[in-house]
Amino acid sequence: MKVTVDWIEGLNFVGANEKGQRVTFGGEGDYVSPMETLLMSVGACASIDVVMILEKARQKVTGCRCKLEGGRAEEPPRSFTGLNLHFVVAGSDLSVKHVTKAIDLSVEKYCSVMHSLDKEMPVSTSFEIVPV
Description:
The protein is an alpha+beta fold and 132 residues long. The protein is built from two helices and six strands; from the N terminus they run E-E-E-H-E-E-H-E.
């Protein structure tokens, strides 16, 4: 995996992957901050896992949103001190047991972004099922 990050101006940068896909982020108010990007990456990674696991279990999932909150240290490097992931999973006849298992497997085993963070950092999860 290779990416580049190029300075635009001020504290704003654009990242690109080998496919040419781009994301703009920065340390000023115009763009998503690197820490917000990291938090979004945790949510995207975990959501991919949850959807894949539910589909493999033949659950009729039609939507998945992950709402995240990250606590941060007051002093530099101001790393995350804890994460909370709340999943809103939509579908028909979704099993609480399957949704619980999918989230647990993602957080405990599969989410590579989560497992790239401090292993001692507390992570909590919750979910709600929205029938459709």
